[in-house]
Amino acid sequence: MAHTVIAGGGIGGLATALSLARQGHSSTVLERSDTFAEIGAGIQLGPNAFHALDRLGVGQSVRERAVFIGELRFMDGTTGEKVAAMELTGAYRERFGNPYAVVHRGDLYQPLLTACQELDSVELVTGAAVEGYEQDAEGVTVPTADGRTFRGAALIGADGIRSAVRATMLGDGEPRVSGHTIYRSVIPIEKVPQELRWNTVTLWAGPKWHFVHYIIGGGKYLNLAVTRDDGATVPVAGRETAHAHVLAQFPGIGTTARRLLELGEGWREWVLCDRDPVRAWTDGRVVLVGDAAHPMLQYAAQGACQALEDAVVLGDLLDGMGPDDVVQRLEKFNAVRRERAGRAQLIARYMGSELYHPAGERAKARNALLAGLTQAEMYDKVSWLHGDRDFTDSGLGRTR
After folding, report:
1. Which residues does the annotation mark as catalytic?
2. CA-to-CA distance for 106 and 61, rounded, in angstroms?
3. Gap between the Cα atoms of 291 and 59, Å rounded
4. pLDDT tens across 280-321, in order?
5. Fewer Cβ neighbours under 10 Å: the N or C end of the chain?
6. What does the domain layout of the chain look like in residue ranges?
7. CATH homologous superfamily for 3-67+104-174+275-358?
């Protein structure tokens, strides 16, 4: 058994702690906040996420909190036309082995946290902002901002897009600002007219904007997320925004989509950021996972899914690890995960620029292309993401 330090107590960090525990390793999870909690609103979980959650032992707990979606629906946001829909029941579940669902982020996070709290092999430490690391032949020393130090055979950086572990490892500066601003609101379902309570993830695509909504919280809330390609250059995270300001950003939105948008309240805004894929996530006994390794835009709905995949693959590759083979195991993890996660990063960018935001003739061509796809063809296009149960592109991982 080896002891590992994990920087970051978010979804990726807790999932990694669970995965290591299932292989007999202990860990200390360092969370910069004063509590272990997940902020944010809705999140989408593909079949690959449920396969990972099942491997981590929390799949059923998440299913009990999830809303299972009937279809992914693509709408023209200006005309109101239904362009295409991918059905997520019958043939989809049969092909990919699991459902597609949406949850509040807390409904994914809490089962992970509860499972960690029940394990003696997982130590959860709050108020511990990791500042970097130093390593030697035997292990890694991790200092925190409050003057404490922690020691382990390895350090796993799960500390997000502005990772201090990544800064020490790669020194590649601030994340890339996408130029897209997203406005989010969560409202009680009672405020939504009955005829608009669709059991779908619905996306309305317009010129340089798109609007996504779906029900979360076991049917209690509607999650609204509307994005504008506005050329924003300065990162913003969770800033309160006036209702009138949000509506003013989308003057050409169609009637039904506007009805839903007008329901929003307590709006907050973010300027979206990501990073370019990189080849190396390791430095000796240190490795990056999740957003610290491969932060991606939300458009492929795979950020959390890829972090969960990381956790499972890393746990598998550290099975039977001794103190002398840490470096080799971490390098293997890097090798088997980087192509798949990097591809997800790039496809998310592509979807935002080429699929969701075109105008004029490009939008018409997109609509015609999507409308012409059969259900089987749609499944073929997402199978590399949704249907993967190995979580690697190299075939070196293991499936159970």
Report:
1. 214
2. 12
3. 22
4. 999 999 999 999 999 999 999 999 999 999 999 999 999 887
5. C
6. 3-67+104-174+275-358
7. FAD/NAD(P)-binding domain (3.50.50.60)
